[in-house]
Design a protein that fits this description.
Low-confidence stretches: 8-37, 194-205
Largest sheet: 3 strands, antiparallel
Number of strands: 3
Radius of gyration: 29 Å
Strand content: 5-15%
Structural class: mainly alpha
């Protein structure tokens, strides 16, 4: 697969300056610390190029990586990726490293994607760069095979990986291997586990699950739930404030234009006064536009990023709750099968085949 048109090699100076920016972003936004420090990677997402038109249009990016980790085939590499490739990386990291708090990807926005404004493309490019640098700063994710493949695989190799992932997802959706009976059994087991997980979160079952949890963890979990709620509301109000600032700037611009037209009807000092007021309005609009950009970048955007980061943490908490619920359901299932087996053994005249089946069910339940 050839690189999409529009992606040509950038000058070395631009690459070096981009790497310096990535290093700064990596150092300021890394999460996790540990053996894989921010100095092990310098990752830049650059040169966004729009490919195609209409609903099928997408943006491709160059991903340049400098690394000091010996597991990589070369210290510097450059690949071309699009948003769905980043989403595939995120899903692979989530699947292979359950329990690890993943840095959030930028949200999908079908409307803005269709419009493909320069502001949208730049915001997404910046967010994708932050995503990669945060993943590379994590002591486990930095050394993962999934991240390494994403950062250094050629476009052809990566296309094979994407096809393999899509085939695996399609197979899972179809029920996997094992025939209709096995798929039905798996579905029934999943529904039972899901029902148990749901009931474990509600009413008395919730209290039972909390009793099995670490009290310190419960405190952190409840804090995170409240934090997400309050941060989301703060971001919503910040978005409203930024929108009002934009609307005020537009109103000021229209007011200045009205003054200019009004001044054309007058003469002498009156016309000059209106002209000066119109010019002053234009200056105010220019200053307000910069203020709106700063408000969005320094106030609204950090709040939005905080909300997404907290949601990434609460997602791990939800995974933990589901895992605990499934563990409790499995333990209950094993205990019930052991009771049945004990009853059969204690009942005179029990058929040997029933005893054998009950014993097999206990063994299988314990293995699960």
């Amino acid at each position: 697969m050839q690189a999409p048109p529009g992606h040509q090699a950038a000058p070395a100076a631009a690459a070096d300056s981009g790497m310096q920016a990535a290093a700064a972003a990596n150092g300021s936004s890394s999460a996790g610390g540990g053996s894989a420090s921010s100095s092990d990677f310098e990752i830049v997402v650059t040169d966004p190029v729009k490919q195609g038109e209409g609903v099928s249009a997408y943006v491709s990016y160059k991903v340049r990586t400098h690394t000091r980790l010996p597991q990589y085939n070369r210290p510097s590499c450059e690949v071309i990726r699009r948003f769905r490739d980043f989403a595939h990386l995120e899903s692979q990291l989530a699947e292979k490293h359950r329990g690890i708090i993943l840095p959030p990807l930028p949200e999908k926005n079908a409307v803005q994607k269709f419009q493909m404004s320069q502001e949208f493309i730049e915001d997404r490019r910046r967010a994708l760069q932050v995503f990669l640098n945060r993943a590379a700063a994590h002591p486990v994710l930095a050394k993962s095979a999934e991240l390494q493949l994403f950062l250094e695989a050629t476009e052809d190799t990566w296309a094979v990986e994407m096809a393999r992932g899509q085939a695996a997802a399609a197979g899972a959706a179809a029920g996997g291997a094992g025939g209709p009976k096995k798929r039905l059994e798996d579905a029934v087991g999943w529904i039972k586990g899901l029902g148990t997980a749901a009931t474990s979160i509600v009413g008395s079952s919730s209290r039972a699950a909390d009793a099995a949890e670490d009290p310190e963890y419960i405190k952190v979990r409840d804090y995170l739930v409240a934090l997400e709620s309050h941060l989301s509301e703060a971001h919503r109000q910040a978005s409203r404030l930024a929108l009002k600032e934009v609307e005020l700037g537009e109103a000021t611009l229209e007011f200045g234009q009205a003054l200019e037209r009004l001044g054309r009807l007058e003469e002498g000092n009156v016309s000059e006064a209106f002209s000066q007021m119109s010019s002053r309005s234009a200056e105010l609009v220019a200053a307000r536009r910069k203020g709106c950009e700063a408000l969005a970048a320094r106030f609204e955007a950090p709040l939005k990023e905080s909300v997404r980061s907290v949601r990434a943490v609460t997602a791990v908490c939800n995974d933990r709750a589901l895992a605990l619920a499934m563990h409790m359901a499995a333990k209950h299932d094993v205990d019930a099968k052991k009771v049945r087996w004990a009853k059969l053994r204690g009942t005179p005249g029990s058929a040997q085949d029933k005893l054998t089946e009950a014993e097999r069910e206990v063994v299988e339940a314990e293995e699960r």
